[in-house]
Every structure is written in C-alpha cells, then in structure tokens.
Amino acid sequence: MTRDETQPTAPSAATPDTAETGRESEGTRSREAADQSVVLNQGRRSTIPSGAWIIIVGALMTVGLWGLSRFSAILAPAFLALTLVLTIRPIHRFMVRRGVPKWVSAIASILVLVLTLSLVIGVTVLAFLPLPDVIASYQRDFTRMVNDISDFLENNQFLQEQGYDVSGIDTLLGQLDLNTIMSTVGTLINQISGFGGLLAVIALSIFFIVIDTMTMDARSSIVEKAEPELHEALSGFEGRVRQYWLVSTIFGAIVAVFDWIALEALGIPLSLAWAVIAFVTNYIPNIGFILGVVPPALIGLLEGGWQLMLWVIVAYSLINFVIQSLIQPKFTADAVGLSVTVTFLSLMVWGVVIGPLGALLAVPLTLFFKAILVDSSTSTRWLDAFLISESEAERKLSSGRYEVTYSSPHMWGGLPTVVARAARGIKRPAGGSEKVKQRRIMRRRSARRE
Fold first, then answer.
1. Alpha-carbon torsion 236, 375, 75, 289, what sign?
2. Based on the domain organization, do 222 and 206 belong to the same domain?
C-alpha cells in the first residue's frame, strides 16, 4: 500500500466562518437554556416582597428595642462608658507609644474619665443648691403674675367673641402653686444628687472596659479577617463617636460660658446653674436649646417682667445661632451626618426606650446601630438614603462609597432559605444579582462537561 493508503483519512476541516458560526450558535443556545433554567428556578422559589421585608425588619427591631428597655438600667450606663473610653483612647495610645506601661496608661484613662464625670455632677449639684431659696423669694411676684394672666383671660372681649372657653385655662392657673414647684425642684435636685449610683455603674464599666481593651490588636485582626466590612464599620463608629463627644463637649462649654456672661450682664439669678443646663442640653439634639433657654427665661420673667425675659431669649438665640448653627455643624458634619428628621426621631425613640439618659445617648446609639446594621455590608448601604443628610450623601457618592452592585432579597431566596442558610453559617454572596446568575450558569456548564 502507498503511504496515503496506510494513514487514516483526517476529517475535513470546516472553513473559519462556518466554525465560528457554529460556536456562536452553540454558545447562544447554551446561554438561553441556562437563563431559562434560572428563570424557572426563580419562579419556583418562594419570594418575599420588599414591603414584607420592611415589616419583618420593623417587627424584629420592635422586639429588640423592647428587650433593650428591659435592661436599660445596665446597658445604657455601660454603653455610655464604652463611648467615653473610645473618646479618650488616643490618650492611652499616645502614652503607650511614649513607652509608658499599659497598666499605668489604663489607670490614667480611668482617673481622667471618673474625675471628669464627678466634676460635672458636683458643679451641677452646687449650682442648684440655692434654687429653692431663689424660687421662694419670688412667691409674691409669681402670685401677682398668675392673677394678672387670669384677669386678662376673663376680661378679654376678643376671646369671648371668638367663642373660646378660657375657664379651663383659668382653672389650671388657679392650681399653680409655687410650693408645688419648689417641691418638684427639690425632687429634681435629690435625683441629681442620687446620680452617685449611676456614676458608680459607669465607673465600674469604665474600669473593666479599659482593662479589657488595653490591647486589641489580635482581636481586631480576627474581626478584620473574618468580616472586613464589619471591621471597617466599627472602626468608623469609633472615630465618629469620638469626634461627636469631643466637638459637642468643646462647643457646649463655649456656649455655656457665653450664656453665663450674658445672664450675669442681664442680672439673672443662678446664672451658673443655667449655664450648666446649657452645657448639658447641648448633647440633646434638636430640642436641647429649647430645654436650656426655658428656665432662665422664666426667672427673667419673675425678676424683671416680659422685657427681661425677651432679652434672655434674644441673647440665647444669638449665641446658639452663631456657635451651634453656624460654627459647630462644620465640625460635627463628618462625625454625625444624620438627617435632622432621623436625629429627632432617634431622640424620641431612645428617650422612650432608655429614659432620660437616652436623650444624651440618642446620637451615639443611632451611630452604633447604623454601623452594625447598615454600614457593615455593601448590600445594606443603600439605606443611607433614608438616614443621612443630602450633603453627607453627596460627599459619600463623590468618594465612591456606593459604587457596588446590590442583590435584591428574592435573588437569595425566601425567608425559609434565609433562615436555613443563616443556621448553617452560609454567608450571603458578596456580589450583585448578575454575578449570582453568572456563577450559576458557570456551575451548570461545568456539570454538563463533566
């Protein structure tokens, strides 16, 4: 046989155009079949509408807030201690870098916090001790003012022509008694003096937190390796809450000093006490200014009439507008960034859940839960649209904070699938819905080839 006859005949090769067309046709049919399979699987999977997810999350948050309210007497002082420790943590780190032993730095941090809190409470108690005697000195003026208001309401023809019934207001004014007000003030002073128990809980919490966090390198590395986004969110919370406390304290002290000077110039009694109130209420968002201006305005009314009260309100308004409305927001914008509505609602919610201490912790608590529930995952950062201000949203958008692809809840299965995967410790895919589809298609192609 010839050489051509002994070798097997090779199959004739197709032209390049024909081969390319065949591969494109086969790839198109494979993609269509895979996409159809994905659609069918999605149709069989139990899905939950986004509105239902909102209701479920709201119900879970309600239960969680109720649980927090049951243990607020312990959790609120402990959280306050935690945020205070985070605030002074740079002092500890600075001393350690300078070669100071860690236990010495820890003791110094504890002393700084405890002495600061004791100083604030001590000054508050001392400033308010003369308050009952000052109020008692206005007994005659208070009675005259109440009678004048009652006579004005009873003899006002305009109110009578409009059909307003002023009998209820007149009855309420008749029940006003300065002795009752004095007893209320005395109870308030006793409660302030009783903050020693709260201070003891805060001091103990500070002690254990400082001792337990003298070094956090290994534990921080564990969280960063396991959940880098959560580590980033918690680190951001530490920086924001530190900046919030420091800026609020500094500007609160500045406002208190200017208020004290203005009240002294106007001749308002107990000007130091009202300055302390202005300092404390600076931590209360939105309504702190109103709470701080009411007491000195009322004392001004009793001391010098309507004119002096108006001067007090004008002085407080000017100081508050210049310092708290024009200057302070430039320093706290990066730390807080919450919208005015969210800040106000957080004040109401935490005030109900925790009590009076919740008014002071409204912003730090909101920042903490925002960090662990919103900022800790790329799939939930879109909730910032309902939480932060427009300027903060623009800043984050320009920094590329939201340049991620999100996957909707139905792409990850219904509620039974979510619960089952959470119980098994299976994490949600980090990519978006398109990436999830591509991964499923690739797995099916690999299975067919095998």
1. positive
2. no
- The rounded distance, in Å, linking the Cα atoms of 221 and 227 is 10
Specify whether the CB–CB gap between 431 and 407 falls below 8 A.
yes
Say yes or no: 199 and 224 in one domain.
no
pLDDT tens digits for range 93-121: 889 888 889 889 889 988 888 888 888 87
pLDDT in tens, 234-271: 988 988 899 889 888 998 899 999 999 999 999 998 89
Total domains in the chain come to 2
Q: Quick one: 267 and 177 in the same domain?
A: no
3-state secondary structure of 448: helix
Q: Confirm whether pTM is higher than 0.90.
A: no
CA distance 42 to 411: 8
Rg of the chain in Å (alpha carbons): 33
**Within-domain flag for 438:** no
**Are 347 and 248 found together in one domain?**
yes
Same structural domain for residues 230 and 81?
Answer: no
| Residue 52 CB coordination number (10 Å) | 13
User: How far is 44 from 190, CA to CA, in rounded Å?
Assistant: 65
Give 338's strand partners. Answer: 388
Of 280, 278, 311, 276, the C-alpha closest to 292 is 278
Distance between CA 386 and CA 393 in Å, rounded?
10
Rounded Cα gap, residues 190 and 208, in angstroms: 29
| 74 and 103 share one domain | yes
User: What's the CA gap between 362 and 351, in Å, rounded?
Assistant: 8
Residue 184, token pair as written in the block: 């209320």
Helix (H) / strand (E) containing 134? helix 131-136
- For 164, residues 6+ apart whose C-beta sits below 8 A from its C-beta are none
Backbone torsions φ then ψ of 338, nearest 5 degrees: -75, 150
Domain that holds residue 138: 61-215
Q: CB neighbours of 257 closer than 8 A, spacing ≥ 6?
A: 275
Q: What is the DSSP string of 321-381?
A: IIIIIIIHHHHHTTT--B-HHHHHHHHHHHHHHH-HHHHHSHHHHHHHHHIIIIIT-TTTG
Residues 109 and 179 in one domain: yes
User: What single DSSP character describes residue 10?
Assistant: P
